[in-house]
Amino acid sequence: MTLFVLTALAEIVGCWLPYLWLRQGKSAWLLLPAAGALSLFAWLLTLHPAASGRVYAAYGGVYISVALLWLRFADQVRPLWSDWLGVALCLCGAAVIAWGGR
């Protein structure tokens, strides 16, 4: 689970930094750590032990969870109850995909 969370954080940071540059007028220098974060994201994906399609599907549920936490703590926007319900449903789906075939 920790590997999934780290992978999600690397992807979110790699996308958030260019967003700051493009939409909020921050420095273009943010593109350098963004490229590093996306490279880290790609490398972390190679560390997941299962078939890539199943890993990506299960990772999607964790990514959605981390994205809502990012919304709450980085963007300072309080998620709605329906957001949390969606996260719960996604994590249940990810669990079925990850452990269903065992």
Q: Taking Cα atoms only, what radius of gyration do you get, to the nearest Å?
A: 15 Å
Number of helices: 4
Output mean pLDDT. 91
N to C succession of SSEs: HHHH
The largest sheet, given as strand count, sense and whether it forms a barrel, is: none
Spans of at least 5 consecutive residues with low confidence: none
- Topology, number of strands: 0
State the separation between the terminal residues, measured CA to CA: 17 Å
**Shape assignment:** flat
Strand content: under 5%
Task: Give structural attributes.
mainly alpha; 102 residues; flat
Quick summary of this structure?
This protein is mainly α. Helix content is 79%, strand content 0%.
Structural notes for this entry:
The chain has 102 residues and is an all-alpha fold. Helix content is 79%, strand content 0%. It has four helices and no strands. It has helices spanning 2-24, 31-47, 52-73, 81-99. Helix 1 (2-24) packs across helix 3 (52-73). The longest helix is centred in the first third of the chain and has 23 residues, at 2-24. The radius of gyration is 15 Å and the shape is flat. The two termini are 17 Å apart.
List the helices and strands and how they pair.
Blueprint: H1 2-24, H2 31-47, H3 52-73, H4 81-99
Helix pairs in contact: 1-2, 1-3, 3-4
